[in-house]
Request: fold
Amino acid sequence: MSIDTRFLIAIAIMASIAFGCRVAGLIVGTYLGDSRKLRQFLDILPACAMGAVLGPSLGAMTLVQSIALLVSAAVHLATSRFLLALALGTAVLLSQRWIVSMTV
Amino acid sequence: MTTDANSGNGKRGDVRSGHSRIQSAQLGVRRASPLAISSGLFGILYGAACMSLGISPTLAALSCVLIFSGAVQFTVLGMLAEPFSASAIAVSSLLICNRLFLMGISIADHLRERSWVARLLSMTVLTDGAWAATIAEKAPVDRFVYFVCAGLWILALWVAGTLLGAVVAGQLEPDMITALRFSGVLFLALLLLLVVQNTSMGHAPWIVSALVSLAGSRLMPLPIAFLIGVTVGSCIAWFGAPRERMDVD
Reply:
């Protein structure tokens, strides 16, 4: 099987599952109650999922990656500018490469 | 009683808003621009990764349009080698996509006033960025239009970035791609901050989720650690949320 065929099969599987999950969430969310507490709770759940995805990555960070994350978070908290925060964090990540190439 | 479209008193999907559809669309595009540009940059990495595996740019772009979930797309790239296992791809996709399920539940209330066909079609652009931008928006916009335009803008740059990545793949050095991969974590962390800063949810639930998931990942398989992390964070969110207040005139 060629890589393109394998990739096409993978696309079909991934697209079905991704769209199915979105639609399932939409249907469940539409028929849930109107309680304000419930709605607040439902808004928090994706953030909890993001946190759970981030957790293991945070535990395996290198020093430079930790600094990049701290820089990004600090810039975002201070300025609320998403792109600037991401750009500076990425610059820190790339600086590791330059530092290594300069020292070698 | 407040009349804010984002308040708990009215349906959040109400079209009775202070912004016209065009204004809502413009605002959606404007607010999503930083997220869309970031997605475009990740698209470059994705396109380059696809090219390194011998996948054509057309198929890479097609995958972006049909799947529109960077996390799943990047993960599955590592599962295309022989022996090819469709079931392994399905299970991995399902585990990663449960975030989309939760976002679908969360966004449903914002889209309530539209027809089912419109709502179902709009699900094709539901992704972290579009969800975060919509949840974080406090202006009384037409939330359906805002969400769809934000999502389409992010999708457009994600696809454009992928095509660009396929073109410049040969000029990106492997260690640069490795270094930039971590910017996906930065992106997710910033999205999280964006949502938490603009809503009343507080930091405790996601921090607990992250810590439990981190601790769990040392002791058990990652998917189980992830599910436990989400569950514990959800419990913190449920029991820590302020009690519902009765509105009495």
